[in-house]
Amino acid sequence: MAIPLLFLIADTGGGHRAGATAVARRIERDSPGTFDVHIVDPVASGSPALLGRTADLYGPLIQHARWLWAAMYHATNSRAAIRMLRGSALRPVRDAVAQLLTCLRPAAVVSFHPLLNHLAAQAVHTGAFPRVPVITVITDLVDVHAGWACRDVDAVVIPSPGGLDRCRRAGIPAHRCHQLGLPVGSAFARPLPTDQERRELRHRLGLADDRFTVLVCSGADGSGGLDRRAQAIAAARLDVGMAVICGRNARARRRLEGLRDRAGRSIPVHGFVDDMADWMRAADLVVTKAGPGTIVESLCSGLPMLLTWYIPGQERGNLEWLVDTGAGRYVPGVGQLVDAVDELSAPRSPGLAAMRSAVAAVARPEATERIAALISGMAGGRT
Ligand code: UDP
């Protein structure tokens, strides 16, 4: 019988679920039939009142009241605040986690969220079920919120030296810290497409197969004025192809319906897509916010990035790090954005070549495989 594993996520943004799904698929690929992974959002299922609604509000908040999100992020970014949350708003979620443990009897609990790791550790240490390993997989890239640094877990998967520093300072012993990178779906970790494969992919996706292609996206919620930025690129006299992925932002999608470039060519505009890897593999350049998931996926797809926006708190550090590596540029204004696309899309652009080299130097497509091996090893399956 397959060994059950419990993966805890919250559906705020897309990064927690994407990371958990990538690791679950990798475990199944490496040890077929050995594990039965349950990916559950106990915030949605276990908290009737305030917290569930707060999670639902994440998308609108980051879209329309960034300052309020920043205030919430910073107010909770300490061990004392996490302790307080555990004893108050998170109690119903802790009960939901304990119930999941009782029902599923998992061989390991893995949290892809900075609050659920505390609840999992608490439930495992105080519950009536066998003592199973609790593992945190951090899905932020550089600025690691205090919540991630839970000392009561058996292992923490850390994406970057900055994250390692945060966990060590919080008192997590070195042998429990595993700096393995951020999980990324296997579709992004494939070898880069040949020219022929890319032409075929563009054809299938409704893109011109011979033109420099810009992919405009902005996380699962399509936040940060992506419609305005897409319109500006379309309106400029640039010889580029473009596609826009609006994610769950239905309003932006409606506004961009029928979008055409200056030559009258139609531009593909989509809502939430399940084949982001194909869109990235078809593109030459990504215009996006500084979301950790999209950044590592773009790096693994060999794509330089123009970052236009960030969620305050957890994404500011991503932006600074990416700009430092040379793999991305920060272009918050639409004028700057259009100029950068113009420069980088020019034939044999030296700027683009330099960014591509930087991308190749920092991509870590092997991260998911190593995270999957750590979890399956700790859960008692194949190592
Ligand atoms: N994503 C997707 N389809 C979409 C839009 C986004 O699958 O239409 C995925 C994207 O590939 C990435 C995640 O959602 O894995 C977004 O994560 P990120 O950390 O960039 O931003 P967040 O949405 O968490 O703010």
UniProtKB/TrEMBL annotation:
<dbReference type="InterPro" id="IPR007235">
    <property type="entry name" value="Glyco_trans_28_C"/>
</dbReference>
<protein>
    <recommendedName>
        <fullName>Galactosyldiacylglycerol synthase</fullName>
    </recommendedName>
</protein>
<dbReference type="Pfam" id="PF06925">
    <property type="entry name" value="MGDG_synth"/>
</dbReference>
<dbReference type="GO" id="GO:0016020">
    <property type="term" value="C:membrane"/>
</dbReference>
<dbReference type="GO" id="GO:0009247">
    <property type="term" value="P:glycolipid biosynthetic process"/>
</dbReference>
<dbReference type="GO" id="GO:0016758">
    <property type="term" value="F:hexosyltransferase activity"/>
</dbReference>
<dbReference type="InterPro" id="IPR009695">
    <property type="entry name" value="Diacylglyc_glucosyltr_N"/>
</dbReference>
<keyword id="KW-0808">Transferase</keyword>
<keyword id="KW-0328">Glycosyltransferase</keyword>
<dbReference type="InterPro" id="IPR050519">
    <property type="entry name" value="Glycosyltransf_28_UgtP"/>
</dbReference>
<feature type="domain" description="Glycosyl transferase family 28 C-terminal">
    <location>
        <begin position="240"/>
        <end position="363"/>
    </location>
</feature>
<comment type="similarity">
    <text>Belongs to the glycosyltransferase 28 family.</text>
</comment>
<feature type="domain" description="Diacylglycerol glucosyltransferase N-terminal">
    <location>
        <begin position="16"/>
        <end position="184"/>
    </location>
</feature>
<dbReference type="Pfam" id="PF04101">
    <property type="entry name" value="Glyco_tran_28_C"/>
</dbReference>
